[in-house]
Design a protein that fits this description.
Structural class: alpha/beta
Number of domains: 3
Number of helices: 10
CATH architecture of the largest domain: 3-Layer(aba) Sandwich
CATH superfamily of the largest domain: Vaccinia Virus protein VP39
Largest sheet: 7 strands, mixed
Strand order of the largest sheet: 6-5-4-7-8-11-10
Strand content: 25-35%
Oligomer: single chain
Number of strands: 17
């Protein structure tokens, strides 16, 4: 057995039951009773990432016929749904919304009522039929890589009480991320295994729930899937973990270093006395990588007196205090410390520096006017 999150095989059994029901969310007719049976259940914990999980998956086809999980009969549950539909639409701007495992369409309805365009995926025939009867577009199928490509470009989604059922939660989260725009927000809900463990609720282990998330293991799954945590709530008397996530922006590793070097060098004009401000690690690295020498930049100004009189490695430019500017004013100063840029500009103008001031962020340029 391997962990369903990290893949480790370092698993330890923490609970075993010999007389669990074959189904906890599928209800039997009188005719089906003769095929009913009890099963053995083994629960393990991953020694590497601490994810609690069953030793066996629940068969996917069992979700297709008449699997039921309806909470629409509870006033408290409806209030919970309304609260988080408000958050998604009013606070986070959800407009183009998809729900995976939408059940009978209760949350779809709450989102649609608030103006969102909604679509759902639901493998249960019975639940899907109910959701469609309410007028919603719902695909009666599992959600995954084989879902039609038209289902993409969403700014919001929900996975409410889905991840605890699936054998590969990272796969469904990553597929959801691939179907959403950068910055899309998502609502994820799972039972709170931390509450279950602390309160010794051994009877909450059942066959349909393959995975039991604590806040820590849910956060691990979220981070590994291209999402960032926005909000985490323990809800319904701490029974649920209800989180709002945001899709991380796509990362482009084109650093454009040669372009930046050229822009920086273009600001150092021959015949003009140019200094730089900021002997930080980043500043010294930038000077060295760009090939700037003391013949082009006479001094590095820095407020740290421990650096005064010393030289930067690579460029070998001498570091001087800010007071040196008044003694021998340069024509221009380039600020290499972007975090302190405005503070440095204010200090330069306060001491009467009238030359040009430049910045390196977001690209090397001269600042306009008396900034």
């Amino acid at each position: 057995m391997e962990c369903r999150i990290c893949g480790s095989d370092a698993m330890s059994i923490i609970f075993q039951a010999d007389s669990c029901p074959k189904y906890s969310h599928k209800y039997l007719s009188g005719e089906e009773l003769k095929h009913d049976s009890k099963i053995m259940l083994k629960v393990a914990i991953c020694q590497k990432c601490s994810l609690i999980q069953l030793s066996e998956d629940f068969p996917e086809d069992e979700y297709v016929s008449d699997y039921q999980r309806n909470i629409s009969f509870s006033k408290l549950a409806q209030e919970h749904i309304d609260k988080f539909a408000d958050k998604m639409v009013l606070e986070h701007g959800a407009k183009n919304f998809i729900e995976i495992g939408c059940g009978n369409g209760l949350f779809l309805g709450a989102m649609a009522k608030r103006g969102a365009n909604v679509v759902g995926f639901e493998p249960s025939v019975a639940a899907c039929k109910t959701a469609k009867a309410s007028g919603f577009k719902v695909e009666n199928r599992f959600f995954g890589k084989d879902a039609p490509k038209e289902f993409c470009g969403y700014d919001s989604f929900a996975l409410r009480f889905v991840l605890e059922h699936v054998p590969a939660p990272l796969d469904i989260l990553r597929e959801m991320a691939s179907r959403c725009n950068d910055g899309a927000v998502g609502l994820i809900e799972v039972p709170n295994a931390e509450n279950q463990v602390l309160n010794k609720k051994w009877f909450e282990f059942f066959r349909e729930h393959t995975i039991y998330f604590t806040p820590q293991t849910l956060l691990s799954a979220i981070n590994l899937s291209g999402f960032q945590l926005v909000e985490l709530h323990t809800t319904m008397r701490d029974e649920f973990l209800t989180v709002i996530v945001k899709k991380s922006p796509s990362v482009n590793y084109d650093w454009k270093q040669e372009e930046m070097k050229k822009q920086l060098l273009s600001l150092i004009e021959p015949g003009k006395k140019t200094w730089v401000w900021g002997a930080s690690g980043a500043g010294i690295t930038l000077l060295c990588e760009t090939g700037i020498k003391s013949q082009q930049v006479e001094f590095i100004v820095d407020s740290d007196k421990n650096k005064w009189g010393l030289y930067a490695s690579g460029s070998q430019i001498k570091i001087v205090p800010p007071s040196e500017i008044s003694v021998s004013p340069p024509d221009a100063i380039l600020i290499l410390s972007s975090a302190y840029e405005q503070e440095i500009v204010n200090a330069l103008r306060a001491q009467g520096f009238a030359g040009k001031i430049g910045t390196i962020f977001p690209y090397p340029k001269w600042l306009e006017g008396k900034t």
